[in-house]
Amino acid sequence: MNQDAHQKVKPSHLKRNAYLYVRQSTLRQVLENTESTQRQYALRQQAVALGWPLDRVIVIDTDLGQSGASAVDREGFQRLVTEVSLARAGIVLGLEVSRLARNSMDWHRLLEICALTDTLILDEDGVYDPAHFNDRLLLGLKGTMSEAELHVLRARLQEGIRNKARRGELFVRPAMGFVYNADGRLVIDPDQQVQQSVRVLFETFRRTGSAMATVKFFARQGLQFPRRVHTGPNKGDTVWAGLEHSRVLRILHNPRYTGAFVYGRTHTRKTVDGDCVIERVPQEEWEVLIREKHAGYIDWDEYERNQRHLRDNCQARGADRRKSPAREGPALLQGLLICGCCGKRMTVRYHSRRGQLSPDYVCQREGIEHGEPVCQHIPGSGIDEAIGNILVEAVTPVTLEVALAVQQELQSRLEEADRLRQQQVERSRYEAELARRRYLRVDPDNRLVADSLEADWNARLKMLAEAQELCERQREQDRILVTDQQRAAILSLANRFPQLWRNPATPDRERKRMVRLLLEDVTLLRGENITLYLRFKGGAHRTIQLPLPLRSWEQRQTSKEAVTEIDHLLDLYTYPEIAFKLNEAGMSSGEGKPFTARIVARIQRSYQLTPRYDRLRKAGMLTVDEMAAVLGIGAQRVKIWNRHGLIRSHAYNGKNDCLYEHPGTNPPRKAMGVKLSKRRSAGQLLAQGAMEVQYEA
After folding, report:
1. N or C: which end of the chain has fewer CB within 10 A?
2. CA neighbor of 241 nearest in space, from 250, 233, 229
3. Sign (positive/negative) of CA torsion 590, 592, 594, 598?
4. Which ranges constitute the DSSP H helices of 549-658?
5. CA-to-CA distance for 540 and 517, rounded, in angstroms?
6. Pairing outcome for strands 669-671 and 692-694
């Protein structure tokens, strides 16, 4: 150590700790390049030579295997910066500048903090004081050269990788379902169960058009999907577990399953806070694309169809929202409607009407994006009904062929799933047999190993029993699923399709799937009428006109037939009696509810029908007071005579209020001494020509 170095070390520095920072860029360097690691640890002796006791030389080596390109993931470097900032470090030791940082921002930040806290820096060339201009200049140049060195190394490495990729010789981690053979060529995995699982995944997505539906199919059938372990002691092993939605998407987006070699599908970009963000690169910007490089599971055309399906299924906002797969909800054209005014996709808005969900088709993209008014807003019930009628008309002639295809597809699907479950049983049986042989080969006296192998054997036997039970149970369910009666029902679908389509028990999702098999999209335009432009699969098209839907109040309006009937019945009956008559005839109100006296009264007022009271008065009926004056008795006596049938009355409401018929030229009169039990009705008295009544004093 030269004299200049000792002159820079002051007692104030020696009062603080010395920090030795040790780093290697990769774990491979840690294991193989041990010479560099030893040289870095040897710097402790230089700190001791400068005056620091060995117990106060703190070694920070938690960043072994970490790159110096950034300080984000380097816990040790961040700790070092913290200690320097708190003025706990008298000197920082590093073999060279590149060990501390290869990034100018991180390096100069460390220099600035060291200058502020009077902390020295030591490397193989000597001791530097960042507070001195010459030392700061020299350290800055070293940092720049270190960053440039990193750039050159990285550029050479990347160019070598690109050259191998252009030739299709770059070794990349194989996707599930592929392995490298002895010649280093990528081939389909020889494991039949792995092959079949991947093929079933693509077949299920081809049939359903939905990644989530694929996951549900595997779960419903009790099927597992392989996954390769990439880290840990079991690296390279294949494990089996339930299929996940994210795994389905990764497989569908991976062009390697077409047999193509691809390089440059993603791009890594650094953010302001130092994190790395992986971004997808459009297909036209991929650096390397070599089709038919090796065997695949699907062809390139199917891969592109899958990408279109996935884009259409995307639920992103704005312009990225496209045609979506069939989902829950009664809206038949959900995801298929295009606005005839602006050309954007229309969305669905549900509301409750009469206890059921009713769809509205809305074009609100401009409203969401720019605050503009809603472009179009149309109730969807009438539109869905018209589309359903067209579907029934179009499908019925070919339904028998479709039914046969459905039957065959169901059977093949069940057989394929059963083969996969059988392969799972075979794999479990092999693993159990392997565990048994391992247990039998061990020395019985070595109980520590024997017990472990026995436990593993028992676990494998349990897994085998569960796989066999699952296979038998699912096979029994599949046997029940496709019975002879169900086959006959499928074959009779041609004659019963309209009934099945209109059956309330038919799920909405199935109706939507059938619509998507027939229609590409539907353009909707609202004017004096509703115009629907239907574009069928295959290029055919059709235009239909529909009347404008009724307004909300019009939909709740009572039918003209019911109003006419109420007008007729008001001549003869009260409100409760009219409600009973209408319900007996099977009529209902505008809201779909049974008639009540209150509803009948409200309809009479709303439609300005002549009340029953006015009708009776117009017919010459008398009030109770008027009747009392005609008979020469009290009003209460009129009611008593009416109750005894001596005079005739007609009720005009549900409260027993009445109007009375005029008694004519021969009205009833009082009769003294006639007992109540011997009174006679008005009809009897009139028949006898006598009008005697009991008089009560």
Report:
1. C
2. 229
3. negative
4. 552-555, 560-569, 575-584, 597-606, 612-618, 624-631, 635-643
5. 13
6. parallel
Which of the two residues, 301 and 373, has the higher pLDDT score? 301
Distance CA 376, CA 363 (A): 5
Query: What 8-state DSSP symbol labels residue 187?
Result: E
CA distance 354 to 375: 27
Topology, domain 3-163? Rossmann fold (3.40.50)
Bridge partners of 559, per DSSP, are none
172-313 in CATH: which number?
Answer: 3.90.1750.20
pTM above 0.70, yes or no: no
pLDDT confidence of residue 473: 73
Question: Which spans in 314-446 are helix H?
Answer: 365-370, 381-395, 399-441
Whether 402 and 490 have beta carbons less than 8 Å apart is answered as no
What integer is the mean pLDDT of 586-594? 81
AA letter at 312 = D
196 burial class (0-12, 13-18, 19+ CB within 10 angstroms)? Answer: middle
What span, in angstroms and rounded, lies between the C-alpha atoms of 663 and 620? 11
Task: Report the alpha-carbon distance of residue 507 to residue 475 in Å, rounded.
Answer: 25
Token digits for 637? 């006596």
Quote the pLDDT of residue 252: 92
Q: Nearest 5 degrees, angle CA 225-CA 229-CA 233?
A: 145
Confirm if 62 and 21 have CB atoms less than 8 A apart.
no
Domain residues of the chain, as ranges? 3-163, 172-313, 398-495, 556-609, 618-694
Distance CA 364, CA 339 (A): 10
Cα–Cα distance, 480 to 457 (Å, whole number): 35
Torsion of Cα atoms, 106 then 107 then 110 then 116, to 10°: -120
For 477, other C-beta atoms within 10 Å of its C-beta total 13
Catalytic, out of 25, 70, 146, 210: 25
CA 315/CA 334 separation, integer angstroms? 13
CB of 328 within 8 A of CB of 508?
yes
Q: Which two tokens stand for residue 671?
A: 């009769």
pLDDT digits (tens, 9 = 90+) for 255-285: 999 988 888 888 787 776 666 778 888 888 8
State both tokens at 353.
């009407």
Do the domains at 3-163 and 172-313 have one common CATH topology?
A: no
Give the residue with greater pLDDT, 330 vs 636.
Answer: 636
Of the ranges 87-91, 320-324, 586-590, which one carries the lowest mean pLDDT score?
A: 320-324
